[in-house]
Request: fold
Amino acid sequence: MNSNLKYKILIASPFIISFIYHLLTIVFPGFGEPSPFNRHLLFLFINSCMAFLALSGRKIFIYVLGVLLIQQVYSHGHALYYKWFDQSRVDYYSLVICLGLPIFFYLLIKSKIFK
Reply:
């Protein structure tokens, strides 16, 4: 296995993990944060596409990831704020997304893997 493929698998792994998370929330209702069934189905599709694009090595992956980054930080940022101030608890999943995804995006741009 060449090193470039190893990097692409590593880059696809957060989307594969997220796919598994959303699948588990469908199979086991009550698992994870509450969210509508249709939203989980949508993110099964989105994460499948993102993993495929990451493995394909196409440059469009970076642009699509940029759009997804904006949506995710907006959505999870709102959830993080709401749960902290209205429910007095930390939404760790949203915290990881809001901190990790921008760093992931920055590192991918700097790596120039997707030229």
About this structure: Residues 3-111 form one domain. The mean pLDDT is 93.
